[in-house]
Structures are given as C-alpha cells and as structure tokens.
Write a structure and sequence with these properties.
Largest sheet: 3 strands, antiparallel
Number of strands: 3
Number of domains: 2
Number of helices: 10
Radius of gyration: 36 Å
Structural class: mainly alpha
Helix content: 40-55%
Strand order of the largest sheet: 2-1-3
Order of helices and strands: HHEEHEHHHHHHH
Shape: rod-shaped
Distance between the termini: 110 Å
C-alpha cells in the first residue's frame, strides 16, 4: 500500500529549508517570530475583575475555583497578556468602588460587634497574663483587701494571703 498523503513541512523543518538551493529563502527571524506567535495563540489569559482573588490568570484551571460565586465578574480568551491587562484596567476605571485595597478595609478589631466584642482576643489574653508591676500590684490589692462580701459576690477567695503580704512590703 502506498500512501498518497504528502508530508507537510512543519515549522521546525522550515528552519532547515533556509539554506536549501532552489527554495525561497526565508529569514530565520521571521520563522522564529511565526513559531512564537503560534505558541502564544494557543495560550489564553483569563481575568477575574472583582472578588478576593481578582487578577489575570494564564490557565483556566487556576482561575476556575474563584469564579463560582454569583457576584464574581470574569472573562476569558484573551490571546495576549497585554489585552488582558488593558481589559482589567478598563474595568477598574469603570468600577472604582469595587477596587478597594486590603489596606483600605477596616481592621479586624473595628469590625468586632455585639457579643463578639465581649470575648477577649488572644492578644488581650496574653496581655493580661503578662507579669508586670501594675498587674501584680492590682492583684495584690485585691487579695490584701479581701472580705467575705467579695467572696460571696465573686464566688472565690485567695488561698495564701500571708505570702502576698511579703510581696507587698517588697514592692513599696
């Protein structure tokens, strides 16, 4: 069986055709530029315009997990990175209220409301546990001025009052 199909020269075999006699000589630069264009045309860029993961992605697999929310605006199929960047800039110019930076957002401590405000954060707990002169003096005053009325209202009482009186004399 004879094959009737003729083998077409690929882009890479065209480089070897440059020096063949009788063939039209093509400059190596033009061939390289054509090869680069074909490789970049296969690659598409995707833009997520808003949301926490907004930006330009070079593969749909990277951008897809962040597009499932209903308010996320995205577009794909840009052939060049420049087109994608230009589209992203145009969207930011048209929708400036959605382009808040993280630094512009309110800090976490300000956002705490209601019951959450009463729950101490880890930083506040560590600060209370840290031993310093003011904390020690405050605790010492509570223990030294302890009465049965405080025990009934607070529900606990100090154990070693004698040891703390020695600390009081050292602190003054």
């Amino acid at each position: 069986m004879k094959s009737t199909q003729q083998v077409k020269p690929s882009e890479f075999s065209q480089l070897s055709m440059v020096d063949k006699p009788g063939e039209e000589k093509i400059s190596e630069n033009k061939i390289i530029v054509e090869i680069i264009k074909k490789f970049t045309q296969d690659k598409k860029y995707y833009v997520i315009y808003n949301g926490p993961m907004k930006g330009i992605y070079d593969a749909w697999e990277k951008a897809a997990p962040f597009t499932h929310q209903s308010k996320i605006v995205h577009k794909g199929g840009f052939l060049t990175l420049e087109e994608a960047k230009e589209s992203f800039r145009e969207y930011e110019a048209l929708h400036p209220e959605q382009t808040l930076k993280r630094a512009d957002k309110a800090p976490i401590q300000v956002q705490r409301t209601g019951i959450m405000r009463n729950i101490p954060t880890r930083v506040e707990i560590k600060e209370k546990k840290r031993v310093c002169r003011s904390n020690l003096k405050e605790t010492l005053n509570i223990v030294l001025n302890w009465t049965e009325e405080k025990r009934t209202s607070l529900g606990y009482y100090p154990i070693a009052k004698e040891q703390l009186t020695k600390l009081d004399s050292l602190m003054q």
